[in-house]
Amino acid sequence: MNTNPTSSNTTIIWDLPTRLFHWGLVAGITTCWISASWLDNAMTLHIWAGYFTLSLLLFRMMWGFVGSETARFSHFLRMPKHVISYASTLTLRQPSKHPGHNPLGGWSVIILLAASLFMAITGLFANDQVSTWGPLAHRVTDDLSDRITDWHRTGFDILTAVIGLHLTAIAFYRFYKQDNLILPMITGKSTAPSMRPMVRVGNLRALLMYVISTGIVAAVVLAG
User: Fold this and answer.
1) Which residues contact 108 (CB under 8 A, 6 or more apart)?
2) Helix ranges, the chain (H)
3) How confident is the prediction for the chain on average, in pLDDT?
């Protein structure tokens, strides 16, 4: 591991793999939504977007243990007392001093990842009740596949609500607490005071983790 050098005005708080994951997940979920809700005869696109999203989520699970400092679960998952303590400061109109996710935001990330993973996994067993089945749908009974399809649809409603809360929180931090959370996720840099640079690992490790996650998804699909 090595500590990144920073200028006097900016601090690196997000590594490239984490940022690519974030925007890749946005693209994957958006494509799944548009292909299922707005386009006709686009279930093939929906399925491939689901595979892509699942590979990203598996990567993020691994990156949460072996990735750069701010990406690790151990860095941003805090005990309830720390979450409550941080929540009591939400009314203060000042940026967060936490490098990466704050204690409350850390758990919201876990909820978002869990909801997305639920959607991706149930999609493997779901069907559109017309002509398209997930790669593992035939591994279960038709009745169970139909039930999982209902879970998949309900999961989308839950995921939509979670994303809505996520976007609301971003707007709250931007306009009330004067803390721009989007720009650092693009540039990796923060201009907030009292931030120390994160400790990061090389991008080659991230590439290896993504190759592994993609291989797992491919193996599951081919096994179906």
Assistant:
1) 162, 165, 166, 169
2) 16-37, 43-66, 73-76, 80-87, 103-125, 142-175, 182-187, 203-223
3) 91
The neighbouring-strand residues paired with 190 are 11
* Separation of alpha carbons 64 and 141, rounded Å: 35
Number of Cβ within 10 Å of residue 116's Cβ equals 23
**Average pLDDT of the segment spanning 156-180:** 95
Q: With bands split at pLDDT 50, 70 and 90, how would you rate the model's confidence at 191?
A: confident
Give residues with Cβ within 8 angstroms of 44, minimum separation 6.
Answer: 132
- Does residue 136 sit in helix, strand or coil? coil
User: What does R_g of the chain's alpha carbons equal in angstroms?
Assistant: 19
Distances (CA, A) of 132 to 36, 43, 126, 145, 182: 12, 7, 9, 12, 37
Q: pLDDT above 90 covers what percent of the chain?
A: 79
Residue 129: pLDDT band by 50, 70, 90 thresholds? Answer: confident
Return all residues near 20 (Cβ < 8 A) that are at least 6 apart. none
Cα–Cα distance measured from residue 72 to residue 62, given in angstroms and rounded to the nearest whole number: 9
Model confidence pLDDT, tens digit, residues 11-30: 889 999 999 999 999 999 99
Contact yes or no for 50/116 (Cβ under 8 A): no
Banded pLDDT at 1 (limits 50, 70, 90): very low
**Single pTM value for the model:** 0.91
Fold of 10-223: Fumarate Reductase Cytochrome B subunit (1.20.950)
Q: Is 15 exposed, middle or buried (0-12, 13-18, 19+ CB in 10 A)?
A: buried
